[in-house]
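Subject: mismatched residue count in predicted assembly?

I count 613 residues in my input, but I want to confirm that the predicted structure covers every chain. Input:
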Amino acid sequence: MSVVLEQAGLGIRNPRKKSRFLPKLMKQRFLFLLLMPGMIYFLVFKYGPMYGILIAFKDYSPQDGVFSSPWVGFKYFREMFEMKYFWTVTANTLKISILKIAIGFPAPIIFALLLNEIVSNKFRRIVQTISYLPHFLSWVIVAGLIFQLVSPSYGVYGLICEAFGWQPRVLLGNGESFLQILIVSNVWKEIGYGSIIYLAAIAGINSDMYESAVIDGAGRFKQCLYITIPSILPTICMLFVLGLGGILDGGFDQIFNLYNSMVMPTADIIDTFVYRVGLVDMQYSFSIAVGIAKSVIALVLVLSSNWIVGKLSNYTVF
Amino acid sequence: MKKNASEKIFNVANIGLMLLICLTIVFPFAQQVVISISPPNESSKIGLHLFTSNPTFDAYKQIFSTGSLLESYYWTILRTVLGTVLTVVVSAMLAYPLSKRYFLGRKMWMSIVLFTMFFGGGLIPTYLLVKELNMLNTVWSLVIPGLCSAYTIVIIRNFFTSLPVEVEESAYMDGANDFSVFFKIILPLSMPIIATVTLWSMVGQWNSWFDAMIYISNGEIKVLQIILRDVLNNAQDAALANVMGIENVDMSGQRYTAESVKAGILLVTTLPIIMVYPFLQKYFVKGIMIGAVKG
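Triage response: the counts match. Full output below for your records.
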């Protein structure tokens, strides 16, 4: 056994630890070779861009490059905070995210609980398989389906209006209905896939608990309320904290594929704003400043929500 | 056990609700299928589009008559294969040393990976880096920037950690080195997690469009998602004409319409995914569970 550990570099604790560094390194050289490609990737493509953050503090011009562009300190951050439209997109992002969490977060939980009550295994499996499908589609495809469905002149929406004699509106061109479409399509896309984790948690519950509950006379609703839900609560808390980390995201892919100039005042979010200002208008410094503000706030939000959930339920993710 | 009336009502309502959810998913696709094979007098009009009296495949013939869509199939398949193979191999290789408790500097390497979960450079700096590396307008810009994620690494590493140590130990006794242990013993044992990551990566590559939109500016590499986006959005007619290889979209006298061609393109973009995912179900379910154990 100790030979094996030695071979693998896990020596018995040695007082001359320092001097064993090189032999250890030699023994682990293959492990280092395995590590290298991935580590280089992380350093170049994940940490490399962090260097570009400097651009937010400089008057960047592509000719000068990051290094020789002049420093301007917090000029672009001040500009950002003084810009009215920045606060509009931030408010939009928060509004969309909070609505999405309020409706999109409980939906898979309820779906999983209801699915769990389906008696026929075969029927349940078929429903599950179908419900996963939308998750695997890109928002480009889903947007195509939505354009078709809500079209007043062509889609099912137009047909319904015709049948009831309503005056059809352009649903995607109206702030309020656009928001509703965002939320409904988000639930539609993720309800099945999001339920997988809860179904797994439910499957892991000890069946003895249900048996004793039945003996005590608990019906299915009571079993669900007093056994199933408390048992999956840690999973719910974990996913909630992780979900809060994305509260400033709002769903770039979805909004970018659906929005148009008519709904900009309600549908423009931080990410779409950064994209347009940065890559379309080429205002690199300003858009990076906005991006940094977003990352920092998101980080603070995750850590604080983790802390709050930890206080409330003694369960932390990090 | 006696079933009472309220329980029966609940069961029926529950089954009804599940059927309704499935219907909202199947219905839009059924519509697209019917529209794509409907003759012009039906596909151009408002309607439920769940039935056609006179199916025609002219829209598909037209879509595939030019090389344009086939070429974008080529690019999409190329990026999917390259991206998936590289992602799986590099991620697994990186995760292996990180699963060894005795690995030198393991904590440091792990922190380097984990930190990227919480903070990143963002869109514009990443774009500038890709530009700086001269990867714009190459297929590498679609493959390399999103190669590994901290989440995938953690999941693979957790799987490796859960493997019994004894298997490796006996191989080491036989004089195998870390390389051969990894490729000949660990990887074959890790097929469930490898399959999961492969599926995620494949779907991600197939579906991705934003990178193609920002990194490819000369239009030489057109992936399916971009074609579909162009056709569905804004200057529809020009994009449509381009895909169909015709001068303009005057479709009078044709046996297809803009609607049926759009539906056809949407379906040929979606079909590979619809055909693959049900068979890989058990793998992504397993992957999610492994990820949930220690996220």
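Chain B has two domains: 1-56, 57-295. Marking this ticket as 'not a bug'.
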